[in-house]
Amino acid sequence: MAMSAPRASVFTFESTVHSSHVLRCLDDQRRRDVMCDVTVVVEGQSFRAHRSVLASCSEYFTHRISSLTQHGAVLTLPQEVTAAGFEPLLKFAYTSKLLFGKDNVLEIRNSSSVLGFRDLDEACFEFLLPKFFSSTKGSALCPRKTCCKKKRQLSKTGSCTDSDAVLLEEKEVKPVDYSPSQQEVARPCEKSEGSKLGSQKSTATLAAAAEGANDGFMRCPKYRKFQLACGKGACAAEKRLTPAIRDECGLSCSPCSSSANSKNETERTNPARLRDNGADQRRTTEIHEKTIDVGSGEAEKNTNEREGDIMKMEEEMEQAARVSSRDRSSVEAVSVGESTRLAERSPGLILHHCPLRASAEAPVITRSQGQERFVMDLKDDNKTRESGGEEPVSILQRAEEQAETEGERGIMDRATLPANNTREGSPVGSDEGSSDPDAGRSSNTGSGQLQATSENWVKLHVNLSSSSSDCPFLQDLDQSKCLWKGAGLSECASHSGVSSLNSGEDGDSETETEGDSEAYTRERARQVQLPFSVDCIVNLSRNEFQQLLKQQVFTQEQLEFVHDMRRRSKNRLAAQRCRKRKLDCIHNLQCEINKLKTEREKLMVEKSHLSQMKVTARHSVSVLCHRVCSEAHLQPEQLQVLAKYMPPDCPLTSLFPHIDALLSQSGLPLQPPASEEDWCRSGRDTVTGDGTNIHHRH
DNA sequence: TGAAATTGTCATCAG
DNA sequence: CTCTGATGACAATTT
């Protein structure tokens, strides 16, 4: 076994935590006022920060700060920016997290628009605000959807009032003019959607403002596929959301609904995965409580509302438990502790639903230090895992775990992708678009991940199987009744884009955007109800896959589908790798070209320098020759020899214009000047000590 | 509206 | 012979 010749390889290590670590450090520095080099004054209130951070997040700061030179500069923000609006933005700049409540979201949004906070306007507010506020209108309302509406040029002044109407009007504050792009801040266009109810219903409810928005939405060239699919009866919202949303809309979010309905703020649900098919199911709701002034008038004003929200939240949680208990074998009743209530009462909640290890204890509510972080562990039974042990299960589990890992990574990746990556996500979710309630979807298990891929900021992962009626983010899902009945499809099917292939109709796909083969695949996928997900199939090794095939009884159709799907999935990944390699290769070649160009520049400079020296040297030689010729009274023979060693660019004739005549009188021919090469060689000879010629001349 | 970019799929080849 | 990965080519879609 001959070893191949050693090759120099270049490896790249990319840390996934580095950036967050850096950001955390910066935030820490900011809070300790370490290395802060700018003071931002808002409404008389001062905020210390780092210029680079601010400039990295905001167009406004980019332009303002670039003109600041002195250290410790003070920046006074325009009056449109309020302290209440700016502070969360500042924190967002340092943490990537925006905490807001219904009472201050518009202020924040205003400030964000004025300051040109990247990623927020379009990514967050346009997506979130309509949902956020529409939820207060009652869950019966068809949720509205936002869409890029750059074409709309609405008036942009003042701050929005806290009313839905205003929201719908989408008043926008034009960023201070420094960035043309920002002046075209995309604004949400309201797209009513409610599954099959379609736009009619919503438009009726939402009034003219929404209608205009609808137009904008439908005109939006982007995500046309989604829109088309919407027309087929699916909720457009999901269309726009990432696959993850659509993929798992079978669930709903309970707690988040209450948080949204109440003055609570954002919800963010971590990707939690609920396993079907006996896989263990874990649910956790983390509630980040924000310190609030409950005694404020605002708080009191909303007391009733919150109470209702809390009640609803509890109901929904219990419902979630019930749902999951239906799905799985047994689930303990979920009780919400008083501390949780406290947390829930707080406005500005951030709800995380994240997977937790299944716990045997009753729901646990923990409180972590510092951040008033409540964790409710909604325990699910873990029967299957405990009883698991059969080979097929282990294979599937392994595959699903892998799929989960990759799926989650993929989800996160997608979440950070720019809007143009909807396509990648599209396969995942998909289905909501379908008006066909039978469009097979797994997941009464209720694992849901709501994501706004197109808005790379918003990442909502919902994993509770409760009603989503009050969740501003999941209303659409709920209303579209995206209860995937994917006959026994395992949950991991809902974790990756690929999985959607066998989950029936893909949201995207229904838009007929895919080719016939894809339609065929979908059709097949619906027909072929596999007991496991596509991810499982794709992620299994060859042996495991074959083992699985042996252990399970498949129809011919299923077998064909499985093989076909595995082949295409793998090929798709291979194509992606291949393209990436190509790009890397191109990049490397470009680097190489740049390197060579630099090298060439260096050589050119050196050449120029040498040429200069050469000219100088020749000049010196010519001067010397001239002196010798004029003072030594050389004989014609000597002149002839000398001519031979004169440089080509300085022939002897240039020193002795009459040398021709002189030599011809002596009957001697004029030796032509040596070629440059010869001359150089002769020069070297001379230098090396061959001075005979010189002596001879003398 | 057309060009460019992106992505999935198929066919083919090599290991 | 089968499976898998790589890759060119093509088509559909998005930007």
Mean of pLDDT: 51
Query: What gyration radius follows from the Cα positions, in whole Å?
Result: 37 Å
Count of individual helical segments: 29
How would you characterize the largest beta sheet?
4 strands, antiparallel
Query: In order across it, which strands form the biggest sheet?
Result: 5-4-7-6
Summing up helix and strand content along with how strands pair, one would put the structural category as mainly alpha
Unreliable stretches, pLDDT < 50, 5 or more residues? Answer: 1-9, 134-314, 316-396, 402-518, 683-698
The amount of helix comes to 40-55%
Query: Roughly what fraction of the amino acids lie in strands?
Result: 5-15%
* Overall morphology: elongated
Number of strands: 9
End-to-end Cα distance, whole Å, is 74 Å
Name a few traits of the molecule.
single chain, 698 residues, mainly alpha, four-stranded antiparallel sheet, 29 helices, elongated, disordered N terminus, disordered C terminus, DNA-binding
